[in-house]
Amino acid sequence: MDLTFQDPGLEYSLAHILDFQAEGMSDYWRDGLFLFYPQLDRAHFDALEAGARPAYLREGLGAVYRENRALIGEKRAAYQACWKENRPQVEEAFSDAFGLDTRALFNGLTVSITLNPICPRYLEERAFDLFYLNSPQGALGMSLHEITHFLWFHLWQNRFGDTPAEYESPSLKWVFSEMAAAPILGDRRLSALNPYRDGCVYDYFYTMTVEGTPVLDIMGQMYRSLPIGEFMEQGYAWCLRHEGEIRGQMR
């Protein structure tokens, strides 16, 4: 595996911020923008027509990008160095987790450093985003989460033969993959590198229960007791049986 960190520019940041400010998005996804950028007036932004929102963000965040462009360049170099230093340990742990040689996989992942507090991944483009305020170790921790998804769905697709369109929110396959990331990232070789080890999946999973048992405890027990392929099959079947209870606790 190899990651290439880049600064994609202001317009990329604005476009991806707007993806998470679209109509129908919950406050869970929207709040971070206004927390990190208090100069943006949320009430004013919400009152704008969709076509006027890019200009408002460009005016409000353009200065942030210009003032931090050199910092983003420094972060790019620091993130790249941190990845290079820790890559062998990461590949070893993921190879064991997924039962394949990860050194030969995903040697062209692009990581864009953006102003967006939300850090999405794009499976088909082999890319994901990172927030520019991450430390190098924080960027590595975020990258571990996203790498988990690339490897998970690589193995999943080879096993089940479905399509990547089924791997995105709000699909249950996406929900399961997010829960399953917790026990995978719990490997000591990965958790030792991850400052977000105690919050490596969406926070609502840490309080989610099914029939009175914490969901992440169930995922951990299944993951530790089954080969990865069987974990995928049995874990997804379990999610299907309890889908209503799971979705009722998501945000």
Question: How would you briefly describe this protein structure?
Answer:
This protein has helices at 10-19, 27-36, 42-47, 53-98, 136-160, 172-185, 188-191, 204-207, 215-225, 228-241, 243-247; strands spanning 3-6, 109-114, 121-122, 127-131, 209-210, 213-214. With 251 residues, it is an alpha/beta fold. The strands form 2 sheets. The protein has a 4-stranded mixed beta sheet, sandwiched between helices. The chain has a two-stranded antiparallel ribbon with strand order 5-6.
Question: Can you tell me about this structure?
Answer:
The protein has helices spanning 10-19, 27-36, 42-47, 53-98, 136-160, 172-185, 188-191, 204-207, 215-225, 228-241, 243-247; strands at residues 3-6, 109-114, 121-122, 127-131, 209-210, 213-214. The protein has 251 residues and is α/β, with parallel strands linked by helices. It has a 4-stranded mixed sheet, with helices on both faces. A two-stranded antiparallel ribbon has the order 5-6. Helix 9 (215-225) runs antiparallel to helix 10. The longest helix is centred in the N-terminal third of the chain and has 46 residues, at 53-98. The chain is globular, with a radius of gyration of 19 Å. The model has no long low-confidence stretch (mean pLDDT 97).
